[in-house]
Amino acid sequence: MIKVSIIVPVYNVAPYMERCWQSIRQQTYSNLEVIFVDDCGTDDSVRILESLMENKGRLDCRIIHHDRNRGLSVARNTGFAASTGDYVYFLDSDDAIMPDCIESLVGPLEEYEYDFVIGDYTVVGEGGYSPLILPQGPLKSNKEILEAYLDGKWYVMPWNKLCRRQFLLENELLFKERLIHEDVLWSFVMACKAKSLYVVKKPLYNYYVRNSSIMTSMSIEKDLGIYLDV
């Protein structure tokens, strides 16, 4: 049975921590390890999480603590370095996943070892939407995957993608530190390297738009400058 590592960075998300936790607890897929990375926020996020984890049951989960705030990219890298799953899944702690999320993404792997499996998602709130335009099914060449990426047919965000851990390791697919649009660079390198992809055309992830988030508070000038750096 394929083992999946769910990696969840935690930073100033106290109002949303329980929602995220419960969505993990409700997963229908059982062979999971869950790694929370405490990025030294200033609210009660970690205290709330520790309280919730007292009722973790048989769920394999733990918290890794940074010694100082190091940012989202490093938090994801820390979780990935500690993971032991065959596949890894990134989840933002202010979002939530559907109960059958991991089970639905693992399903195609019974027939083929894809470099990554991507699912659709739902936006809750007002904000930009990068749709998953590809139909259900496989892409089994890098040419198809890269062309689909360049055509904007699959989204750049790292969440809601089930990624083969060995593929990420072999291609040194880590997140660049101190880069706000780290997801753009990460997904572009993935598109350049991946040789197989499977699309699950089903909303499995709830992306909650917050007014205080990095993306919604970005100025046009700063946003453009960061994209030029990427």
DSSP strand tally: 9
Distance between the termini: 38 Å
Q: Which quaternary structure do these chains form?
A: single chain
Please summarize the sheet with the most strands: 9 strands, mixed
* Structural class designation: alpha/beta
Could you give the order of the helices and strands?
EHEHEHEEHEEHEHHEH
Radius of gyration: 17 Å
The number of helical elements comes to 8
Shape: globular
Q: Estimate percent helicity.
A: 25-40%
Explain what this protein looks like in three dimensions.
The chain is α/β, with parallel strands linked by helices and 230 residues long. It contains eight helices and nine strands. The protein has helices spanning 17-25, 45-52, 72-82, 101-106, 142-150, 165-170, 182-193, 220-229; strands at residues 4-10, 32-38, 60-65, 87-90, 96-97, 116-124, 137-139, 161-164, 197-208. Strands 1, 2, 3, 4, 5, 6, 7, 8 and 9 form a nine-stranded mixed sheet that branches. Helix 5 runs antiparallel to helix 7. The longest helix is centred in the last third of the chain and has 12 residues, at 182-193. It starts with a strand and ends with a helix. The mean pLDDT is 92.
Short note summarizing the structure:
The chain has eight helices and nine strands. With about 230 residues, it is an alpha/beta fold.
Question: Could you list some keywords that capture this structure?
Answer:
230 residues; 23% strand; alpha/beta; globular
Please render the helix and strand layout as text.
Elements: E1 4-10, H1 17-25, E2 32-38, H2 45-52, E3 60-65, H3 72-82, E4 87-90, E5 96-97, H4 101-106, E6 116-124, E7 137-139, H5 142-150, E8 161-164, H6 165-170, H7 182-193, E9 197-208, H8 220-229
Parallel strand pairs: 1-2, 1-4, 2-3, 6-9
Antiparallel strand pairs: 4-8, 5-9, 6-8, 7-9
